[in-house]
Amino acid sequence: MSAAEGPLVVGVDTSTQSTKALVVDASTGRVVASGQAPHTVSSGAGRESDPRQWWDALCEALRQCGDAAHEAASVSVGGQQHGLVTLDARGEPVRPALLWNDVRSAPQARRLVEELGGPKAWAERTGSVPGPSFTVTKWAWLAENEPEAIRATKAVRLPHDYLTERLTGLGTTDRGDVSGTGWWASATESYDDEVLARVGLDPALLPRVVRPGEVVGTVRDSHDLPFSRGTLVGAGTGDNAAAALGLGLRPGTPVLSLGTSGTVYAVSKQRPADPTGTVAGFADARGDWLPLACTLNCTLAVDRVAALLGLDREAVEPTTEVTLLPYLDGERTPALPGACGLLHGLRHDTTGGQLLQAAYDGAVHSLLGALDLVLDADADRSTPLLLIGGGARGTAWQQTVRRLSGRPVQVPEARELVALGAAAQAAGLLTGEDPAAVARRWHTAAGPVLDAVERDEATLARISGVLSDAAPLLERGTDPR
């Protein structure tokens, strides 16, 4: 390893499937070491993980980084949003964490929205209309289904909070991640006592919300991580807010992230409050806002269709008749938590490649439908759409996004943007810089730009028509249990 020009920092991404760690030169943005270790997620009606495996995965990822991790001066953690982590008096998990894509709390979400004034009131209060992904609905589900777990719970955390607390011994969170809980009021930037009372959650169980740029503590002595004593620990944040930091995102630039979930978002100076619930009014990690729309079904759903067809994921063929709505795990955008996949327009001459292309089209359609709602009214519509996430380098994904968006598409060359954003946050602790400015200095968004092509209005209209006509069937779907 060549000598670093500046201090080393560590950025962590604890995602649904794995934990990744990057050791980064704070001066240049060069990644000098990296590591990764997997998680397991339950199958069936629920989506759960044991938080202790996130810690084990972090230890392993850092072990893979070698001596570079030991030399780091600061660390910060980005993590999957919304997950409900319940801890007992010893700080041990009461039960596995309920993850963002566990939609069993759909009935509780509907009831909470109704009981506290309806969608418009929720949007004005918290910035978002809570769906079954939101943490507040998961707590309500747990209270109804596992009251013994509620009684044993002495602390409530989000996934990134859990790892930060294991590092420092202190219970903290940040505005970016807590804005996705449903119990944080974006209008006042504080916990919402009425919401907490409605679901029976004592605010004393919640972590302190730290300020952007604040050092939350130092790595404590009683651990087995390869950090030096006194290593600074940043606030961390949710994965989308971390990726926005990692891109050095400025207001008005749209991002489409293709991962386990699909998201579209942009930084805004204006506090969002969409009463339709399509756009979640999240905070970012700096002091601005991050209006965001999310689909549950993205790369995993399309890969599953490819596997069922026995095809490589790139083996697409043009299609003009077949429509596939790949709602394999219910859906969040549109709000159809009980839905399952729907295929329409199948004929004798339909090919497997056409079915696969239809799956791509169905996934991208849901995200692009929310794009105009995410962007401010005065945003420049010719600005390239930044394409990130695990699917961003796939040719079929790139071409589908180009064709259905009609916009130029830029694919940043930097990988692991969540971990890079956490690293930029860690670097800001040392230099006093805005983490987004750190990332811009690192040129993380640089990458090829694919020119705009004519927007495929016919396909968009066909999918929208099928979605509208099939609404009763999709709403009936299969009840998540």
TrEMBL record:
<dbReference type="InterPro" id="IPR018484">
    <property type="entry name" value="FGGY_N"/>
</dbReference>
<dbReference type="Pfam" id="PF02782">
    <property type="entry name" value="FGGY_C"/>
</dbReference>
<keyword id="KW-0859">Xylose metabolism</keyword>
<feature type="site" description="Important for activity">
    <location>
        <position position="13"/>
    </location>
</feature>
<comment type="similarity">
    <text>Belongs to the FGGY kinase family.</text>
</comment>
<feature type="binding site">
    <location>
        <begin position="81"/>
        <end position="82"/>
    </location>
    <ligand>
        <name>substrate</name>
    </ligand>
</feature>
<keyword id="KW-0119">Carbohydrate metabolism</keyword>
<dbReference type="InterPro" id="IPR018485">
    <property type="entry name" value="FGGY_C"/>
</dbReference>
<dbReference type="GO" id="GO:0005998">
    <property type="term" value="P:xylulose catabolic process"/>
</dbReference>
<dbReference type="InterPro" id="IPR050406">
    <property type="entry name" value="FGGY_Carb_Kinase"/>
</dbReference>
<feature type="domain" description="Carbohydrate kinase FGGY C-terminal">
    <location>
        <begin position="308"/>
        <end position="427"/>
    </location>
</feature>
<keyword id="KW-0547">Nucleotide-binding</keyword>
<dbReference type="Pfam" id="PF00370">
    <property type="entry name" value="FGGY_N"/>
</dbReference>
<dbReference type="InterPro" id="IPR043129">
    <property type="entry name" value="ATPase_NBD"/>
</dbReference>
<dbReference type="GO" id="GO:0004856">
    <property type="term" value="F:D-xylulokinase activity"/>
</dbReference>
<dbReference type="GO" id="GO:0005524">
    <property type="term" value="F:ATP binding"/>
</dbReference>
<dbReference type="InterPro" id="IPR018483">
    <property type="entry name" value="Carb_kinase_FGGY_CS"/>
</dbReference>
<protein>
    <recommendedName>
        <fullName>Xylulose kinase</fullName>
        <ecNumber>2.7.1.17</ecNumber>
    </recommendedName>
</protein>
<feature type="domain" description="Carbohydrate kinase FGGY N-terminal">
    <location>
        <begin position="9"/>
        <end position="246"/>
    </location>
</feature>
<dbReference type="GO" id="GO:0042732">
    <property type="term" value="P:D-xylose metabolic process"/>
</dbReference>
<dbReference type="InterPro" id="IPR006000">
    <property type="entry name" value="Xylulokinase"/>
</dbReference>
<keyword id="KW-0067">ATP-binding</keyword>
<keyword id="KW-0808">Transferase</keyword>
<dbReference type="InterPro" id="IPR000577">
    <property type="entry name" value="Carb_kinase_FGGY"/>
</dbReference>
<keyword id="KW-0418">Kinase</keyword>
<feature type="active site" description="Proton acceptor">
    <location>
        <position position="239"/>
    </location>
</feature>
<comment type="function">
    <text>Catalyzes the phosphorylation of D-xylulose to D-xylulose 5-phosphate.</text>
</comment>
